[in-house]
Write a structure and sequence with these properties.
190 residues, alpha+beta, tt1808, chain A, six-stranded mixed sheet, three-stranded antiparallel sheet, 4 helices, 13 strands, 32% strand, globular
Length: 190
């Protein structure tokens, strides 16, 4: 379970990004000024991340609409929040490589894959932070349920998908259509 680290000072994004986190296999993030430490991912978590990233990377390369990137990658949401989604799709634009840390406004999609240690409270806080910062679409993949729940910045109601999921970064772009049964089977059953 993600736990805030006791600290008498409120952290800022600048302080967090300048800090050298320990290389101990855990995830360090900043949420509303609190340093959050989460256990390392499980094997099943990483298998699902790998399959989703492969699908998103193939789609973004084929359509030239963004770049799909896997964690570890800090994303600055606000002056006191820096999260590390499992996968992000960032806008493709000139000069993007010069960004030290992507901003929420650079994201087209954020993807989180649940782990046994993910609490509902932590997930709700992360979801709210990502959507309030302007990330247009959030996916939360559940390896146990073999589903992906989607949220958008304009609609706070999550939609659960078990069989297929369709996504496009813009209205005038051919969408990515994921066969979720095949994706989860490839990740978890082979």
């Amino acid at each position: 379970m993600a736990m805030p680290v006791p600290d008498s000072d409120r952290w800022t994004a600048a302080r967090f990004l300048a800090w050298q986190a320990p290389r101990d296999g855990r995830r360090y993030e900043l949420l509303a000024g609190a340093l959050i430490v989460s256990p390392g991912p499980t094997f099943a978590h990483q298998l699902v991340v790998d399959e989703l990233h492969a699908a998103l990377r193939a789609y973004t390369v084929a359509t030239r609409n963004g770049r799909a990137l896997q964690a570890p990658l800090d994303v600055r949401l606000t002056d006191d929040t820096v999260l590390e989604p499992d996968i992000v799709v960032v806008r493709a634009r000139r000069g993007a490589r010069r960004l030290a840390v992507p901003l929420a406004t650079e994201l087209l999609l954020a993807v989180e894959v649940l782990s046994p240690s993910t609490s509902a409270q932590a997930l709700d806080a992360r979801r709210a932070a990502l959507l309030q910062a302007g990330v247009p679409t959030l996916w939360v993949a559940d390896p146990d349920d073999r589903s992906i729940t989607t949220w958008s910045a304009t609609d706070d109601v999550g939609r659960v998908h078990h069989t297929s999921l369709t996504w496009a970064p813009r209205a005038n772009v051919a969408p990515l259509v994921l066969d979720l049964r095949a994706l989860f089977a490839d990740a978890l059953d082979r």
